[in-house]
Amino acid sequence: MYRTHTCGELRLEHNGKKVTLAGWVQRIRKFGSITFVDLRDRYGITQLLLGESLNQQLDQQPLGREFVIQVSGTVTERTNKNPNIPTGDIEITVSDFAILNGAKTPPFTVQDDTDGGDELRMKYRYLDLRRNIVKQNLELRYRVNRSARNFLDSRGFMDIETPFLIKSTPEGARDFVVPSRMNPNEFYALPQSPQTFKQLLMVSGYDRYYQIVKCFRDEDLRADRQPEFTQIDCEMSFVEQEDILNNFEEMLKHIFVEIKGITFNEPFPRMTWDDAMEFYGNDKPDIRFEMKLVNLSETVKGNGFKVFDEAELVVAICAKGCAEYTRKQLDELTEWVKRPQIGMNGLIYARYGTDGTIKSSVDKFFDEGKLKTWAEKCQAEPGDLILVLAGKEERTRKAMSELRLEMGERLGLRDKNVFKPLWVIDFPLFEYAEEENRWVARHHPFTAPKPEHIEWMNDLSKYADIKANAYDIVLNGTEVGGGSIRIFQRDLQEKMFAALGMTPEEANHKFGFLLGAFEYGAPPHGGIAFGFDRLCSLLGGSETIRDFIAFPKNNSGRDVMMDAPSTIDQSQLKELNISLVQ
Question: Are residues 301 and 261 in the same domain?
């Protein structure tokens, strides 16, 4: 064997033991006739002492960083101990060493405080993966994976694989498509999720299914989105919404105990979609802090201030203890809301002084008495700052939601070590797509309406009021999972497709296999899918899921290490019966 122990294994109790280690050279320090080497593997670092007797061999076979070597020697107690590493009490007095493979000088330092930028590290990802901080992220990912699997196995769930080469059924994000050589001019699609397959498994009688599975969506990328990502995908038969929520709340609690040592003794809070939009401005509220949105429209209109009088919505938040914000800080906030990605024309503010007086940026239109009405509505106290936005309803609500999060960040209220999970329920079944001039499914077209709203599916004027039997699990302002009770009757599923503008022929072409299955005894069923990469990044305290994926794509969807996507040979294109248009 190349080694008797790993580089993270040896301790003082091994003192005097003859051992053989193998790994990568992390660092070399030469002091006269002796040389110290830090040897690294996946498990840790062990210091090596190469004495005077090995100097001639070192001269003939000099070591370099990232060389792969094998050493034999004796475990000895270190004179200068290193309390920062588990092996810091010992070192190996080397009797013999061999270079297994040399290494070029790395393009960046392979250590936690590296000098390599993102693109460089992604190009040499196999080197980046050697860094301890990246290794810890992948270890956390594995532990979350194992914890979820153990829980689901204990609850009788069965891990069943589903195909990656499927039929294209565009709905939501764009499909990645794969040409078929054996079926000229026809294409597979890569699954955006195993949605229809897991429903078919319910029809097949496999009442508790799960997969930790790759999914593919051709969409614009950001910190929490990759073209290929991983879901914890689950489905259950003979259940109602309450069964799903209770079961998977227990799974999350189980993961938190095992991964973070955090116990949630109380049930996760629940919030309707309507309340989330009203009080937080979005459907994934960060409830680590209050600062709820307050609708001031009726309170402030009719005072001659055109900005308020012509606005569809006037909304405020109260920033506790911020009345002493300087004019410079307020000007910075004003410029912040004017950025294109926020899209507001300006910001109004009112300072509630510790002496009980209130001054605002619109004192010309609102005397102190009226400003105190603002304060009462916002539950502001002396020392607080009220921030107000006004304009078109949808844009203004979204902008205030972003400003609330920004203020939470500036005030240190979004602690990564504090975890606040939340269920959001009672979503709308439909939303209206102005550009397409039609109703679309808010979740997906297999989501069941609330039982009491099924009859409204026949009335177009009621579409905006129909609630879905759907739910999201939100953690610290990030949606980490979502699901629904599914439609399981053919006639209701056909009504849903019709509501989305599909003709019977189109619905049968795209989903005839599912509609047909519903005629052979489909049970009531529902499920949920967790964004596995997002969950890992939150548990690891990172803002980007790339840190928890072994070989991620960059923001352009490219693998810069393999240089993919890339062109293919003309012969391959000919075999696939494809010609390219420049």
Answer: no
Separation of alpha carbons 459 and 484, rounded Å: 22
Q: What is the pLDDT of residue 195?
A: 95
Consult the annotation and say whether 14 binds a ligand.
Answer: no
Query: Is 305 a member of any domain?
Result: yes
218 annotated ligand-binding residue: yes
- pLDDT(170) > 70: no
347 with 256, same domain? no
What percent of the chain has a predicted confidence (pLDDT) above 90? 92
Residue pair 259/140 in contact by the 8 Å Cβ criterion: yes
Q: Answer yes or no: is 29 a known binding residue.
A: no
Residue 283 lies in a domain: no
Q: In what order do the strands lie in the sheet with 478-485?
A: 158-159, 208-216, 228-237, 525-531, 478-485, 470-475, 421-425, 270-272
The number of folded domains in the chain is 3
140 and 266 in a single domain? The answer is yes
Cα separation, 444 vs 428, in Å, equals 12
Averaged pLDDT score across all residues of the chain: 95
Strand partners, 83: none
Residue 181 assigned as binding residue: no
Residue 123 has pLDDT above 80, yes or no: yes
Q: Does the structure show a pLDDT above 80 at 172?
A: no
What's the domain range around 56? 12-101
Within 8 A by CB and 6+ apart from 62, the residues are none
Q: How much is the pLDDT for 324?
A: 93
Is 518 annotated to bind a ligand? Reply is no
Consult the annotation and say whether 131 binds a ligand. Answer: no
Residue 562 lies in a domain: no
pTM (predicted TM-score):
0.93
479 labelled ligand-binding: yes
Same-domain pairing of 150 and 265:
yes
309 among annotated binding-site residues = no
Residue 129 neighbours by CB under 8 Å, 6+ apart: 135, 138, 550
The set of residues, in sequence order, having a beta carbon less than 8 Å from that of 366 and lying 6+ positions away, is 300, 303, 305, 360, 374
Same domain, 248 and 300: no
Q: Is 400 exposed, middle or buried (0-12, 13-18, 19+ CB in 10 A)?
A: buried
* Share of residues in the chain with pLDDT > 70 (%): 99
For residue 443, say whether it is annotated as part of any ligand binding site: yes
Look at residue 169 and tell me whether its pLDDT is greater than 90.
Answer: no
Q: Is 534 annotated as a binding residue?
A: yes
Annotated ligand binding at 486? The verdict is: yes
User: Is 575 assigned to a binding site?
Assistant: no
Counting every residue, how long is the chain? 582
DSSP characters over 297-336 = HHHHTTSS-HHHHT-SEEEEEEETT-TT--HHHHHHHHHH
